[in-house]
Amino acid sequence: MKKYYVLDTNILLQSPGAIYGFEDNTVVITGTTLQELDSKKNPDGEIGYNARQTARILEDIRNRGNLIKGVKLKETDGKLIFEPNEVSQENLPEGFDIKKPDNRIISSCIGIARKTKRAVILVTNDIMMRIAAAACGVEVQEYKNDQIKESSYVGYREIKTSREIIDDIYKKQSLAPEIFADEKPFVANEYITLTDGNTSALCVYRDNCIRLLKDTTAFGIRPQNRLQRFALDALLAPAEEIPLVILRGPAGTAKTFLSMAAALDKTYTDEFTRHTSSTSYDKIYIGRANVSSDEAFGFLPGELEDKTRPLLGCFYSNLEDLLRKGNHEEDAQIQIQIDDMMETGLLRVFPLAYIRGMSIKNSFIICDEAQNIGRSLIRDIVTRCGQGSKLVILGDTNQIDVPFLDKTNSGLTYLAHNMKGSTKCAQITFTEKESVRSALATEALNRLM
Protein backbone atom coordinates (compact mmCIF):
# COMPACT_ATOMS: atom_id res chain seq x y z
CA MET A 1 0.00 0.00 0.00
CA LYS A 2 1.22 3.50 -0.80
CA LYS A 3 2.32 5.62 2.15
CA TYR A 4 2.27 9.20 3.39
CA TYR A 5 5.72 10.68 4.05
CA VAL A 6 5.65 13.85 6.15
CA LEU A 7 8.89 15.81 5.63
CA ASP A 8 10.50 17.63 8.54
CA THR A 9 11.92 21.05 7.74
CA ASN A 10 15.54 19.94 8.16
CA ILE A 11 15.18 17.46 5.29
CA LEU A 12 14.33 20.24 2.83
CA LEU A 13 16.97 22.58 4.24
CA GLN A 14 19.55 19.93 3.37
CA SER A 15 18.05 18.40 0.23
CA PRO A 16 15.33 20.40 -1.56
CA GLY A 17 15.07 17.58 -4.09
CA ALA A 18 13.88 15.24 -1.33
CA ILE A 19 10.36 16.16 -2.46
CA TYR A 20 10.99 13.81 -5.37
CA GLY A 21 12.65 11.11 -3.26
CA PHE A 22 9.70 8.86 -2.36
CA GLU A 23 8.76 7.16 -5.62
CA ASP A 24 4.97 6.87 -6.15
CA ASN A 25 4.03 7.63 -2.53
CA THR A 26 2.47 10.84 -1.17
CA VAL A 27 4.76 13.53 0.21
CA VAL A 28 3.26 15.86 2.83
CA ILE A 29 4.47 19.37 3.69
CA THR A 30 2.90 20.77 6.87
CA GLY A 31 2.02 24.38 7.52
CA THR A 32 4.66 24.47 10.25
CA THR A 33 7.39 23.39 7.81
CA LEU A 34 6.28 26.00 5.28
CA GLN A 35 6.54 28.73 7.91
CA GLU A 36 9.96 27.50 9.05
CA LEU A 37 11.19 27.53 5.45
CA ASP A 38 9.95 31.09 5.09
CA SER A 39 11.93 32.16 8.16
CA LYS A 40 15.13 30.64 6.69
CA LYS A 41 14.93 32.04 3.15
CA ASN A 42 16.90 35.30 3.54
CA PRO A 43 20.41 34.33 4.77
CA ASP A 44 23.21 34.02 2.19
CA GLY A 45 24.49 30.68 3.47
CA GLU A 46 23.67 27.11 2.48
CA ILE A 47 20.52 27.03 4.63
CA GLY A 48 19.12 30.16 2.98
CA TYR A 49 19.94 28.89 -0.50
CA ASN A 50 18.22 25.54 0.13
CA ALA A 51 15.15 27.27 1.62
CA ARG A 52 14.83 29.40 -1.52
CA GLN A 53 15.40 26.39 -3.77
CA THR A 54 12.65 24.50 -1.94
CA ALA A 55 10.34 27.49 -2.40
CA ARG A 56 11.01 27.45 -6.15
CA ILE A 57 10.20 23.73 -6.35
CA LEU A 58 6.99 24.19 -4.36
CA GLU A 59 5.93 27.14 -6.52
CA ASP A 60 6.43 25.07 -9.66
CA ILE A 61 4.27 22.29 -8.21
CA ARG A 62 1.64 24.79 -7.01
CA ASN A 63 1.23 26.04 -10.57
CA ARG A 64 0.20 22.53 -11.63
CA GLY A 65 -2.78 22.17 -9.31
CA ASN A 66 -4.30 22.49 -5.84
CA LEU A 67 -1.76 21.74 -3.10
CA ILE A 68 -4.46 21.15 -0.47
CA LYS A 69 -6.11 18.46 -2.60
CA GLY A 70 -2.77 17.18 -3.80
CA VAL A 71 -0.73 17.62 -6.97
CA LYS A 72 0.60 14.69 -8.97
CA LEU A 73 4.39 14.69 -9.30
CA LYS A 74 5.20 13.88 -12.90
CA GLU A 75 8.81 13.23 -11.89
CA THR A 76 7.92 10.26 -9.65
CA ASP A 77 4.22 9.37 -10.22
CA GLY A 78 3.73 10.29 -6.56
CA LYS A 79 1.77 13.17 -5.09
CA LEU A 80 2.51 16.27 -2.99
CA ILE A 81 0.00 17.51 -0.43
CA PHE A 82 0.10 20.64 1.72
CA GLU A 83 -1.44 20.05 5.15
CA PRO A 84 -2.06 23.33 7.04
CA ASN A 85 -4.20 21.80 9.81
CA GLU A 86 -4.15 18.94 12.32
CA VAL A 87 -2.14 20.97 14.86
CA SER A 88 -3.65 20.35 18.29
CA GLN A 89 -2.39 19.98 21.82
CA GLU A 90 -4.92 17.16 22.20
CA ASN A 91 -2.87 15.02 19.82
CA LEU A 92 0.15 15.13 22.12
CA PRO A 93 1.04 13.83 25.58
CA GLU A 94 0.85 16.42 28.37
CA GLY A 95 4.60 17.04 28.45
CA PHE A 96 4.76 18.11 24.77
CA ASP A 97 4.34 21.83 24.16
CA ILE A 98 2.35 22.50 20.97
CA LYS A 99 4.19 25.82 20.53
CA LYS A 100 7.37 24.00 19.63
CA PRO A 101 7.65 23.49 15.83
CA ASP A 102 8.81 19.86 16.14
CA ASN A 103 5.74 19.03 18.25
CA ARG A 104 3.41 20.81 15.82
CA ILE A 105 4.73 18.62 12.98
CA ILE A 106 4.36 15.49 15.14
CA SER A 107 0.80 16.55 15.92
CA SER A 108 0.09 16.92 12.20
CA CYS A 109 1.35 13.38 11.61
CA ILE A 110 -1.03 12.06 14.27
CA GLY A 111 -3.95 14.01 12.79
CA ILE A 112 -3.24 12.79 9.25
CA ALA A 113 -3.02 9.20 10.49
CA ARG A 114 -6.52 9.46 11.94
CA LYS A 115 -7.92 10.43 8.54
CA THR A 116 -6.34 7.68 6.44
CA LYS A 117 -5.76 3.95 6.45
CA ARG A 118 -2.33 4.42 4.88
CA ALA A 119 0.86 4.36 6.89
CA VAL A 120 1.99 7.87 7.88
CA ILE A 121 5.75 8.20 8.32
CA LEU A 122 7.61 11.24 9.62
CA VAL A 123 10.95 11.72 7.87
CA THR A 124 13.54 13.64 9.87
CA ASN A 125 17.30 13.65 10.43
CA ASP A 126 16.83 15.20 13.88
CA ILE A 127 17.58 12.41 16.38
CA MET A 128 15.69 14.06 19.24
CA MET A 129 12.64 14.57 17.04
CA ARG A 130 12.73 10.89 16.03
CA ILE A 131 12.75 9.95 19.71
CA ALA A 132 9.91 12.37 20.50
CA ALA A 133 7.82 11.16 17.53
CA ALA A 134 8.29 7.52 18.51
CA ALA A 135 7.17 8.38 22.06
CA CYS A 136 3.97 9.82 20.56
CA GLY A 137 3.34 6.67 18.54
CA VAL A 138 4.40 8.13 15.18
CA GLU A 139 6.33 5.95 12.75
CA VAL A 140 9.57 7.72 11.91
CA GLN A 141 12.66 7.28 9.77
CA GLU A 142 15.74 9.08 8.49
CA TYR A 143 16.02 10.41 4.95
CA LYS A 144 18.31 7.82 3.42
CA ASN A 145 18.33 8.80 -0.25
CA ASP A 146 21.30 11.13 0.20
CA GLN A 147 23.22 8.84 2.54
CA ILE A 148 26.54 7.45 1.39
CA LYS A 149 28.43 4.74 3.20
CA GLU A 150 31.80 6.26 4.04
CA SER A 151 34.27 4.89 1.52
CA SER A 152 37.01 2.51 2.60
CA TYR A 153 39.24 4.18 0.01
CA VAL A 154 41.99 6.13 1.76
CA GLY A 155 44.06 7.21 -1.24
CA TYR A 156 47.01 4.87 -0.75
CA ARG A 157 47.96 1.21 -0.32
CA GLU A 158 50.96 -0.96 0.54
CA ILE A 159 52.16 -3.77 -1.72
CA LYS A 160 54.56 -6.54 -0.67
CA THR A 161 56.97 -7.20 -3.48
CA SER A 162 60.51 -8.30 -4.23
CA ARG A 163 63.74 -6.38 -3.77
CA GLU A 164 64.33 -6.75 -7.51
CA ILE A 165 61.16 -4.80 -8.36
CA ILE A 166 62.01 -2.08 -5.83
CA ASP A 167 65.52 -1.75 -7.29
CA ASP A 168 63.98 -1.63 -10.76
CA ILE A 169 61.70 1.33 -10.01
CA TYR A 170 64.57 3.26 -8.44
CA LYS A 171 66.55 2.63 -11.61
CA LYS A 172 63.82 3.31 -14.19
CA GLN A 173 61.72 5.76 -12.10
CA SER A 174 58.52 4.01 -13.21
CA LEU A 175 56.86 0.63 -13.64
CA ALA A 176 53.99 -0.76 -15.69
CA PRO A 177 51.00 -1.57 -13.44
CA GLU A 178 50.67 -4.97 -15.13
CA ILE A 179 53.55 -6.17 -12.92
CA PHE A 180 51.00 -6.28 -10.08
CA ALA A 181 48.27 -8.14 -11.96
CA ASP A 182 47.11 -9.88 -8.78
CA GLU A 183 46.34 -6.55 -7.09
CA LYS A 184 42.92 -4.93 -7.30
CA PRO A 185 42.82 -2.21 -9.99
CA PHE A 186 44.72 0.96 -9.18
CA VAL A 187 42.86 4.26 -8.80
CA ALA A 188 43.99 7.47 -10.52
CA ASN A 189 46.43 9.38 -8.26
CA GLU A 190 46.51 6.56 -5.71
CA TYR A 191 49.74 6.45 -3.70
CA ILE A 192 51.61 3.18 -3.27
CA THR A 193 54.25 1.91 -0.87
CA LEU A 194 56.27 -0.93 -2.37
CA THR A 195 58.12 -2.91 0.28
CA ASP A 196 60.03 -6.16 0.72
CA GLY A 197 60.02 -5.83 4.49
CA ASN A 198 63.40 -4.08 4.65
CA THR A 199 63.44 -1.63 1.76
CA SER A 200 60.60 0.47 0.41
CA ALA A 201 59.73 2.81 -2.45
CA LEU A 202 57.03 5.49 -2.35
CA CYS A 203 55.13 5.78 -5.62
CA VAL A 204 51.98 7.11 -7.22
CA TYR A 205 49.74 5.67 -9.92
CA ARG A 206 49.31 8.41 -12.48
CA ASP A 207 48.76 8.42 -16.25
CA ASN A 208 48.41 4.61 -16.23
CA CYS A 209 51.90 4.26 -14.80
CA ILE A 210 53.42 3.65 -11.35
CA ARG A 211 55.89 6.50 -10.80
CA LEU A 212 58.53 6.86 -8.12
CA LEU A 213 57.99 9.92 -5.92
CA LYS A 214 60.78 12.45 -5.73
CA ASP A 215 62.00 13.92 -2.46
CA THR A 216 60.24 17.23 -1.97
CA THR A 217 59.85 20.12 0.44
CA ALA A 218 57.38 22.98 0.65
CA PHE A 219 58.43 26.39 1.95
CA GLY A 220 61.37 24.71 3.66
CA ILE A 221 59.14 22.08 5.30
CA ARG A 222 60.07 18.41 4.93
CA PRO A 223 57.37 15.75 5.43
CA GLN A 224 57.72 13.67 8.59
CA ASN A 225 56.03 10.45 7.46
CA ARG A 226 54.94 8.73 4.28
CA LEU A 227 51.37 10.05 4.34
CA GLN A 228 52.68 13.60 4.64
CA ARG A 229 54.95 12.81 1.70
CA PHE A 230 51.96 11.65 -0.33
CA ALA A 231 49.93 14.70 0.68
CA LEU A 232 52.73 17.10 -0.20
CA ASP A 233 53.14 15.53 -3.63
CA ALA A 234 49.44 16.11 -4.31
CA LEU A 235 49.50 19.64 -2.88
CA LEU A 236 52.50 20.70 -4.99
CA ALA A 237 51.31 19.09 -8.22
CA PRO A 238 50.35 21.72 -10.82
CA ALA A 239 46.70 22.71 -10.91
CA GLU A 240 46.57 21.49 -14.51
CA GLU A 241 47.36 17.97 -13.26
CA ILE A 242 45.60 17.77 -9.88
CA PRO A 243 43.28 20.75 -9.25
CA LEU A 244 41.53 19.09 -6.28
CA VAL A 245 43.12 17.60 -3.15
CA ILE A 246 41.07 16.10 -0.30
CA LEU A 247 42.84 15.59 3.03
CA ARG A 248 40.83 13.82 5.73
CA GLY A 249 41.77 12.76 9.21
CA PRO A 250 42.05 13.75 12.87
CA ALA A 251 43.59 16.87 14.37
CA GLY A 252 47.35 16.93 14.69
CA THR A 253 48.11 15.19 11.40
CA ALA A 254 49.33 18.43 9.78
CA LYS A 255 46.58 18.76 7.17
CA THR A 256 46.37 22.54 7.58
CA PHE A 257 50.10 23.02 8.10
CA LEU A 258 51.07 21.18 4.93
CA SER A 259 48.37 22.96 2.93
CA MET A 260 49.57 26.38 4.08
CA ALA A 261 53.20 25.39 3.39
CA ALA A 262 52.31 24.38 -0.17
CA ALA A 263 50.27 27.56 -0.66
CA LEU A 264 53.15 29.76 0.46
CA ASP A 265 55.63 27.76 -1.56
CA LYS A 266 53.71 28.54 -4.72
CA THR A 267 52.80 32.17 -4.04
CA TYR A 268 55.09 33.95 -1.60
CA THR A 269 58.62 35.34 -1.84
CA ASP A 270 60.06 37.95 0.51
CA GLU A 271 63.25 39.23 2.04
CA PHE A 272 62.45 37.96 5.54
CA THR A 273 62.07 34.25 4.71
CA ARG A 274 64.76 34.34 2.03
CA HIS A 275 62.56 31.90 0.16
CA THR A 276 62.57 31.75 -3.62
CA SER A 277 59.44 30.27 -5.16
CA SER A 278 58.54 29.55 -8.73
CA THR A 279 55.14 31.14 -8.14
CA SER A 280 52.20 29.29 -9.63
CA TYR A 281 49.28 31.21 -8.10
CA ASP A 282 48.41 34.87 -7.60
CA LYS A 283 46.46 34.57 -4.34
CA ILE A 284 45.73 32.33 -1.38
CA TYR A 285 42.08 31.98 -0.34
CA ILE A 286 41.33 30.38 3.01
CA GLY A 287 37.86 29.58 4.29
CA ARG A 288 36.29 27.59 7.04
CA ALA A 289 32.76 26.38 7.71
CA ASN A 290 31.17 28.60 10.34
CA VAL A 291 29.17 26.14 12.39
CA SER A 292 27.53 28.76 14.60
CA SER A 293 25.93 30.79 11.79
CA ASP A 294 27.24 32.08 8.48
CA GLU A 295 24.62 34.82 8.36
CA ALA A 296 25.90 36.18 11.68
CA PHE A 297 28.85 37.70 9.81
CA GLY A 298 26.58 40.45 8.60
CA PHE A 299 26.16 41.74 12.15
CA LEU A 300 29.82 41.67 13.16
CA PRO A 301 31.83 44.91 12.94
CA GLY A 302 34.54 45.51 10.37
CA GLU A 303 35.38 44.21 6.92
CA LEU A 304 34.90 40.56 5.92
CA GLU A 305 38.52 39.72 6.83
CA ASP A 306 38.00 41.19 10.31
CA LYS A 307 34.82 39.18 10.79
CA THR A 308 36.32 35.88 9.71
CA ARG A 309 39.70 36.22 11.41
CA PRO A 310 38.56 34.77 14.78
CA LEU A 311 37.35 31.62 13.00
CA LEU A 312 40.66 31.11 11.22
CA GLY A 313 43.01 31.05 14.18
CA CYS A 314 44.43 27.69 13.12
CA PHE A 315 45.49 29.13 9.76
CA TYR A 316 47.14 32.17 11.29
CA SER A 317 48.96 30.02 13.84
CA ASN A 318 50.35 27.81 11.07
CA LEU A 319 51.17 30.85 8.98
CA GLU A 320 53.19 32.35 11.83
CA ASP A 321 55.08 29.08 12.33
CA LEU A 322 55.89 28.80 8.63
CA LEU A 323 57.10 32.39 8.33
CA ARG A 324 59.23 31.96 11.44
CA LYS A 325 60.77 28.72 10.17
CA GLY A 326 64.45 29.02 9.39
CA ASN A 327 64.87 32.50 10.90
CA HIS A 328 64.52 34.21 14.24
CA GLU A 329 62.22 37.10 13.46
CA GLU A 330 60.30 38.72 16.29
CA ASP A 331 56.53 38.22 16.54
CA ALA A 332 56.01 41.83 15.49
CA GLN A 333 57.96 41.25 12.28
CA ILE A 334 55.98 38.12 11.50
CA GLN A 335 52.75 40.07 12.03
CA ILE A 336 53.95 42.76 9.63
CA GLN A 337 54.41 40.11 6.95
CA ILE A 338 50.93 38.69 7.52
CA ASP A 339 49.37 42.15 7.47
CA ASP A 340 51.22 42.87 4.25
CA MET A 341 49.81 39.71 2.69
CA MET A 342 46.31 40.81 3.67
CA GLU A 343 46.70 44.40 2.49
CA THR A 344 48.17 43.44 -0.89
CA GLY A 345 45.46 40.84 -1.46
CA LEU A 346 47.86 37.92 -1.56
CA LEU A 347 46.00 36.30 1.34
CA ARG A 348 42.22 36.47 1.45
CA VAL A 349 39.79 34.92 3.90
CA PHE A 350 36.08 34.26 3.53
CA PRO A 351 33.25 32.18 5.05
CA LEU A 352 32.60 29.20 2.79
CA ALA A 353 28.95 30.18 2.37
CA TYR A 354 30.08 33.39 0.60
CA ILE A 355 31.69 31.48 -2.25
CA ARG A 356 28.43 31.18 -4.21
CA GLY A 357 28.61 33.49 -7.20
CA MET A 358 32.40 33.73 -7.15
CA SER A 359 34.78 32.43 -9.80
CA ILE A 360 38.28 32.15 -8.34
CA LYS A 361 41.05 31.95 -10.92
CA ASN A 362 44.77 31.25 -10.58
CA SER A 363 44.57 30.87 -6.80
CA PHE A 364 45.41 28.35 -4.09
CA ILE A 365 42.14 27.76 -2.20
CA ILE A 366 41.97 26.01 1.18
CA CYS A 367 38.61 25.06 2.68
CA ASP A 368 38.66 23.71 6.23
CA GLU A 369 36.05 21.87 8.35
CA ALA A 370 34.35 20.51 5.23
CA GLN A 371 32.66 17.81 7.31
CA ASN A 372 30.30 20.55 8.55
CA ILE A 373 28.84 21.51 5.18
CA GLY A 374 26.24 19.81 3.03
CA ARG A 375 26.15 18.62 -0.55
CA SER A 376 24.97 21.79 -2.23
CA LEU A 377 27.67 23.97 -0.68
CA ILE A 378 30.50 21.51 -1.31
CA ARG A 379 29.34 21.35 -4.93
CA ASP A 380 29.34 25.15 -5.13
CA ILE A 381 32.84 25.35 -3.66
CA VAL A 382 34.29 22.91 -6.18
CA THR A 383 32.50 24.46 -9.16
CA ARG A 384 33.75 27.98 -8.25
CA CYS A 385 37.33 26.83 -8.73
CA GLY A 386 38.35 28.64 -11.92
CA GLN A 387 41.08 28.23 -14.49
CA GLY A 388 44.54 27.75 -13.00
CA SER A 389 43.28 27.35 -9.41
CA LYS A 390 43.97 24.54 -6.97
CA LEU A 391 41.40 23.59 -4.33
CA VAL A 392 42.30 21.81 -1.08
CA ILE A 393 39.46 20.40 1.04
CA LEU A 394 40.23 19.56 4.69
CA GLY A 395 38.08 17.82 7.28
CA ASP A 396 37.40 15.00 9.70
CA THR A 397 34.06 13.18 9.61
CA ASN A 398 34.56 12.18 13.24
CA GLN A 399 34.23 15.86 14.21
CA ILE A 400 30.85 16.85 12.73
CA ASP A 401 29.20 19.67 14.70
CA VAL A 402 26.08 20.33 12.62
CA PRO A 403 22.93 18.76 14.16
CA PHE A 404 21.53 17.19 10.99
CA LEU A 405 24.76 16.05 9.33
CA ASP A 406 26.64 12.82 9.93
CA LYS A 407 29.20 10.65 8.16
CA THR A 408 26.61 9.44 5.67
CA ASN A 409 25.38 12.81 4.36
CA SER A 410 28.24 15.23 5.02
CA GLY A 411 29.48 17.17 2.01
CA LEU A 412 32.98 15.84 2.72
CA THR A 413 31.83 12.22 2.44
CA TYR A 414 29.82 13.07 -0.69
CA LEU A 415 32.81 14.72 -2.36
CA ALA A 416 35.33 12.02 -1.46
CA HIS A 417 32.99 9.26 -2.62
CA ASN A 418 32.17 10.82 -5.98
CA MET A 419 35.67 12.08 -6.82
CA LYS A 420 37.35 8.72 -6.25
CA GLY A 421 39.00 7.68 -9.49
CA SER A 422 39.00 11.14 -11.04
CA THR A 423 42.31 12.06 -12.65
CA LYS A 424 41.69 15.60 -11.39
CA CYS A 425 41.63 14.61 -7.72
CA ALA A 426 43.98 13.11 -5.15
CA GLN A 427 42.94 12.25 -1.62
CA ILE A 428 44.72 11.13 1.51
CA THR A 429 43.07 9.90 4.72
CA PHE A 430 45.30 10.29 7.78
CA THR A 431 44.91 8.21 10.94
CA GLU A 432 45.77 8.84 14.59
CA LYS A 433 49.15 7.18 13.97
CA GLU A 434 50.22 10.15 11.83
CA SER A 435 49.56 12.74 14.54
CA VAL A 436 52.65 14.94 14.88
CA ARG A 437 51.26 17.54 17.27
CA SER A 438 52.69 16.06 20.48
CA ALA A 439 52.96 12.82 22.43
CA LEU A 440 50.02 13.98 24.54
CA ALA A 441 47.88 14.75 21.48
CA THR A 442 48.60 11.31 20.04
CA GLU A 443 47.74 9.65 23.35
CA ALA A 444 44.50 11.65 23.60
CA LEU A 445 43.46 10.68 20.07
CA ASN A 446 43.91 7.03 20.99
CA ARG A 447 42.20 7.18 24.38
CA LEU A 448 39.52 9.86 24.10
CA MET A 449 37.66 8.88 20.94
Structure description:
- There is one protein chain.
- With 449 residues, the protein is an alpha/beta fold.
- The chain has three domains: 138 residues, Rossmann fold (3-Layer(aba) Sandwich), CATH 3.40.50.1010; 66 residues, Archaeosine Trna-guanine Transglycosylase, Chain: A, domain 4, CATH 2.30.130; 211 residues, Rossmann fold (3-Layer(aba) Sandwich), CATH 3.40.50.
- 33% of the residues lie in helices and 18% in strands.
- The chain has 14 helices and 17 strands.
- The strands form three sheets. It has a six-stranded mixed sheet.
- α5 links the parallel β5 and β6.
- α8 packs across α10.
- About 4% of the residues have low confidence.
- GO terms for molecular function: ATP binding.
- Pfam families: PhoH (PF02562), PIN_4 (PF13638).
- This is PIN domain-containing protein.
- InterPro entries: P-loop_NTPase (IPR027417), PhoH (IPR003714), PhoH2-like (IPR051451), PIN-like_dom_sf (IPR029060), PIN_dom (IPR002716).
- In the N-terminal section; belongs to the PINc/VapC protein family.
- The assembly state of the depicted protein chains is single chain
- Main beta sheet, described? 6 strands, mixed
CATH topology of the largest domain: Rossmann fold
How is the largest sheet built, in terms of strand order? 3-4-2-1-5-6
> What is the distance, rounded to the nearest whole angstrom, between the alpha carbons of the first and last residues?
44 Å
Organism: Lachnospira eligens
GO cellular component, one term: cytosol
Protein name: PIN domain-containing protein
GO molecular function: ATP binding
